[in-house]
Amino acid sequence: xxxxKSGFVTLLGRPxxxxxxxxxxxxxxxxxxxxxxxxxxxxxxxxxxxTKTGQIIFVDTPGVHKPHHLLxxxxxxxxxxxxxxxxxxxLVLDSSVEPGRGDEYIRDFLVENEIEFFVVLNKWxxxxxxxxxxxxxxxxKVFGSCKCFQIVSASEGVGCFELIxxxxxxxxxxxxxxxxxIICDQPLDNLLSDLVREQVLINTREEVPHSVAVKIxxxxxxxxxxxxxxxxxxATIIVxxxxxxxxxxxxxxxMLKTIGQTARSNMKKLINGPVHLELFVKVIPNWRKKExxxxxxxxxxxx
Length: 303
Hints:
Blueprint: E1 5-12, H1 19-27, E2 45-50, E3 54-60, H2 70-81, E4 88-94, H3 101-112, E5 117-122, H4 132-142, E6 148-151, H5 160-170, H6 188-204, E7 213-223, E8 229-239, H7 242-249, H8 254-271, E9 275-283, H9 291-296
Parallel strand pairs: 1-3, 1-4, 4-5, 5-6, 8-9
Antiparallel strand pairs: 2-3, 7-8
């Protein structure tokens, strides 16, 4: 294809700036989990947008933050390693608040590593009209050396088309790297476990924060009458304390039922067919500090 563009684009930023929501909006499909709780993304996830003129492979990363345990250290290292070998780095910022030290830390990290980057001011819809000019000036003062600024609202889709066009303009010419019907390169296990973990975060908020992992134990396709198929999924939710297990199960199993119902509904959309989901809850004390458990649950350091 003449003049076809393709390449890798890493989204970097602090926790809860809306990177995952932005990728979902740009691609037009729900491939990454989102919740009001910070630090929902744990695996670097590639979302693939294919257009008539180019293919953009977005790399979603965990939020860069000060780690407090081994899991946190792995997440931050993996986020930082995601700038290696990509064509464009996009620094996503939460424009609903003033620039903070965390934003400056990431800026300095990119500058020190001689990485050119775009700045995307997300959540622009949350900035009061009378403060928009002031807020833009605040960010330009901190990131004035950046060659490209784009204002977006990922939740409303504002500015997203312009962002795609801006990215395609800067990508090199190249072939289509993935088949055009592929929107994500993550294994099915990872996507399914994230859909369960998303509902845990949404429904329990701060009661069961980030000491939650989900392991897909089994996926089995069952043939039913008239050639119909049912996907049976068995998943274990891992927490660190017995009290967290009680919260997750809820009174007479009510919380676990709520988590399972919504997760199953999202799984049906992902698999495009009926799903039977069984959930269990298991306590493993301090699993986030144990390298063997982190590896078992899929959290490994990228180098």
